[in-house]
Amino acid sequence: MERIMVIGAGQMGSGIAQVCAQAGYEVTLNDLKAEFVERGLGVIKKNLSRQVDKGKMTAEELDKVLGRITASNDLQDAKSVDLVIEAAVENMDIKTKIFAQLDEIAPEHTILASNTSSLPITEIAAATNRPEKVIGMHFMNPVPVMKLVEIIRGLATADEVYQTIEDITEKIGKVPVEVNDFPGFVANRILMPMINEAIYTLYEGVASKEDIDSVMKLGMNHPMGPLTLADFIGLDTCLYIMETLYEGFGDPKYRPCPLLRKYVKAGWLGKKSGRGFYVYE
Ligand code: CAA
């Protein structure tokens, strides 16, 4: 395993490309348009420059890491990689289309991983002729900081593929946790209902948004309150994951809060859109 392709140069994809390049892998960062990749590379450069400023990395090391990342706008570049980590939008149609194409393009030995936060790996794998080589690698945001990677076994994922991905996860300085393929896996099955409940608490007028966040920060030692965290993740992503849990389990305990739906309909998507539960300048 030497060459890794990351598909999607957004918040997650650029973070994944950064940690892989820092661990010494040759990385191809792919997105639909050159400007998306440029933006992702800009974020990586800014993160690494902060490390240099803090004396945690030399300027030479920064250049070396950046030199390991190649920009790409063509899925055909998957021809020369050993692992693909897909971090495109959370949409099953888009993901299955990408995986079907990758299956045609990538060499036989190439492992196809998805950074999906809640979609079934087994269904994504079924879009390919190599379901044994399809696996979930769920990173947490912000990727350069958070230690966890949930590794999700699809129904057909081969043991040696799991082992390879576990080894790579450790090599990039993360801690792997093995998870079976059920809606929301572990992280979002527990995190999202908590966030949804915080939104219900606001919706029902139990407390103000600031006070709800204070309770969880000061009372439970969470680094961010749940409403701030929801803004940070993206309210559209939170809603999408709640819908996936609701549909996947058929249990009303996962119904998304109407206030969450309303905010998403208004385009108040959190930090990325400038407004969610809070306003961002
Ligand atoms: N990218 C890269 N590095 C970042 C960063 C970012 N976006 N944000 C912060 N950092 C780095 C800082 O540079 C700093 O690094 P050093 O220790 O090397 O100096 C370090 O993180 C701490 O940052 P700060 O002191 O500025 O701020 P903080 O102490 O408040 O930490 C935080 C920021 C790490 C984001 C913290 O608030 C936190 O842990 N928040 C909760 C994050 C969380 O729950 N993530 C999971 C989201 S759910 C998910 O991702 C799964 C899903 O599918 C939805």
From TrEMBL:
**InterPro entries associated with the record:** 3-OHacyl-CoA_DH, 3-OHacyl-CoA_DH_CS, 3-OHacyl-CoA_DH_NAD-bd, 3HC_DH_C, 6-PGluconate_DH-like_C_sf, 6PGD_dom2, NAD(P)-bd_dom_sf
Q: Name one Pfam family in it.
A: 3HCDH_N
Asked if the record carries the keyword Oxidoreductase, the reply is yes
Please report the name of this protein according to its UniProt entry: 3-hydroxybutyryl-CoA dehydrogenase
State if NAD is listed as a keyword.
yes
| UniProt keyword terms in alphabetical order | NAD, Oxidoreductase
Give the similarity note.
Belongs to the 3-hydroxyacyl-CoA dehydrogenase family.
GO MF assignments: NAD+ binding; oxidoreductase activity, acting on the CH-OH group of donors, NAD or NADP as acceptor
Record SUPFAM superfamilies: 6-phosphogluconate dehydrogenase C-terminal domain-like, NAD(P)-binding Rossmann-fold domains
Identify the residues that the record assigns to the 3-hydroxyacyl-CoA dehydrogenase C-terminal domain, covering every copy: 184-280
